């Protein structure tokens, strides 16, 4: 069975980060989706013809209430979701301004240290993205 390009579910998201208002340490934002009862990075399906970078920023705004400044692209994750191949492009993104308001899709967000974010993430594949972000920020 071959998959044509249009059967791939295309999505985009961000590993959203900020410097703690308290001590300046790195914090990563995770979102809780009640529908799946999971903790993940803000992400979502792209609209038809939508630029992945624009989609990633739109999803961050919709799911967290924050505007973000895109940084470097992180590894693309590819996996099966409901039996269909899914491809999620990720970027590092620094939270600029905003405030979270619970909505249908996301009922809670957490700002966590990278170590705490790693252990809270539901999907192991999402943890590598935190490691890549930390390595990148250490070099800038």
Uncertain regions spanning at least 5 consecutive residues: none
Share in helix: 25-40%
CATH superfamily: Nucleoside Triphosphate Pyrophosphohydrolase
> What's the number of helices?
3
Structural class: alpha+beta
Radius of gyration: 15 Å
Query: What is the CATH third-level topology name?
Result: Nucleoside Triphosphate Pyrophosphohydrolase
Largest sheet: 7 strands, mixed
Inertia-based shape:
globular
Question: How many domains comprise the coordinates?
Answer: 1
- As a percent range, the share of strand residues is 35-45%
CATH top level label: Alpha Beta
Distance between the termini: 45 Å
Average pLDDT value?
Answer: 94
In CATH terms, what is the architecture? Answer: Alpha-Beta Complex
Explain how this protein is built:
There is one protein chain. This protein is an alpha+beta fold and 140 residues long. The chain has a single domain (5-138), classed as Nucleoside Triphosphate Pyrophosphohydrolase (Alpha-Beta Complex), CATH 3.90.79. Helix content is 25%, strand content 44%. It contains three helices and seven strands. Strands 1, 2, 3, 4, 5, 6 and 7 form a seven-stranded mixed β-sheet that branches. β2 (26-33) and β3 (38-40) form a beta hairpin. The protein is globular, with a radius of gyration of 15 Å. It starts with 8 loop residues before the first strand and ends with a helix. The model has no long low-confidence stretch (mean pLDDT 94).
């Amino acid at each position: 069975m071959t998959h044509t390009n249009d059967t791939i579910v295309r999505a985009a998201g961000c590993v959203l980060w900020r410097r703690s208002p308290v001590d300046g340490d790195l914090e990563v934002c995770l979102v809780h989706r009640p529908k799946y009862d999971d903790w993940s990075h803000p992400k979502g399906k792209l609209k038809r013809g939508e630029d992945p970078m624009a989609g990633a920023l739109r999803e961050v705004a919709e799911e967290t209430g924050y505007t973000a400044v895109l940084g470097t692209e992180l590894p693309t994750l590819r996996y099966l979701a409901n039996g269909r191949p899914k491809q999620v492009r990720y970027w590092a993104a620094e939270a600029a301004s905003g405030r979270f308001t619970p909505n249908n899709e996301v009922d809670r967000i957490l700002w966590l240290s990278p170590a705490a974010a790693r252990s809270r993430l539901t999907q192991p594949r999402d943890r590598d993205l935190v490691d890549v972000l930390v390595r990148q920020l250490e070099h800038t």
